[in-house]
UniProtKB/TrEMBL annotation:
This is Uncharacterized protein C15orf26. InterPro entries: CF161. Pfam families: CFAP161 (PF24569). GO terms for cellular component: motile cilium. One of its GO terms (biological process) is cilium assembly.
């Protein structure tokens, strides 16, 4: 009878493990409306997704992001829907007005709440060390932190290396392939796609900072990203869903 009463009490309070799991899943997979870009550019304050266009693996903070303020792992999932776990807000580093377009070579941050609370966590990276590295590839890890520092600063770079100097200072186009570079380490955000694990939410790919160059000294598709915005004609869909 004591066990039954304890069970009933926990169920009423929502403290059962199955209840906690269901709540976590509902919040992480909660539908998020992405910002619509009227001029075709990415702006400070926009809510966006980061898409690796080769296999449509998009960055999302993993299930380990809930319940702790310690640094959190970041993974890429095969999904086409904007939800709490893969939506980021583009944030200014130096006080640029919300609504202003981001420019190539300009520092910015990527923040997320994971649809849990008002607590913001920022996409970050740091140099690899003996105790700090990506678990699968052993390369430079990417994580989420609640601490603002230079480790959370990123820049957008033109995809074509020969045009980078010319494009410096120009607005960053949305839904177009770019390179996202970590300011502190000067390494590019990447999804190798051969390092993955299975979680409660399915197959998740490791996200790292590592610049993969081909024979022409251009970044490989592992480093290619699109900043995905909302669809003008359908608020529940994204620009990548357009025919």
């Amino acid at each position: 009878q004591d066990r039954l009463r304890d069970f009933m009490r926990k169920r009423e309070r929502g403290e059962l493990l199955i209840q906690k799991i269901n709540k976590m899943q509902d919040k992480l997979l909660k539908k998020i409306q992405l910002s619509v870009s009227k001029d075709g550019f990415v702006h400070f304050g926009d809510t966006v997704m980061l898409l690796n266009p080769v296999n449509e693996s998009r960055v999302g903070n993993g299930p380990g992001t809930c319940g702790s303020l310690a640094p959190r792992e970041v993974s890429a999932v095969e999904s086409t829907d904007p939800v709490g776990r893969n939506a980021f807000c583009v944030l200014s580093v130096d006080g640029v007005t919300v609504g202003e377009p981001i420019r190539f070579g300009q520092n910015f941050r990527l923040g997320t709440t994971g649809a849990f609370s008002d607590q913001m966590f920022y996409l970050a990276s740091d140099h690899k060390s003996f105790i700090r590295f990506a678990k699968k590839s052993y390369l430079q890890q990417v994580f989420l932190t609640d601490q603002l520092s230079y480790l959370t600063c990123w820049q957008a770079t033109c995809l074509d290396p020969q045009l980078r100097l010319e494009y410096e200072g120009f607005p960053v186009p949305a839904n177009t392939k770019i390179i996202i570079t970590h300011c502190y380490t000067n390494r590019s955000l990447a999804v190798p796609r051969n390092f993955w694990t299975r979680s409660y939410f399915g197959k998740e790919y490791e996200v790292i900072c590592h610049t993969y160059l081909d024979s022409h000294k251009a970044e490989e598709d592992k480093n290619h990203w699109e900043v995905v915005t909302g669809n003008h004609s359908d608020e529940d869909r994204t620009m990548i869903d357009r025919p």
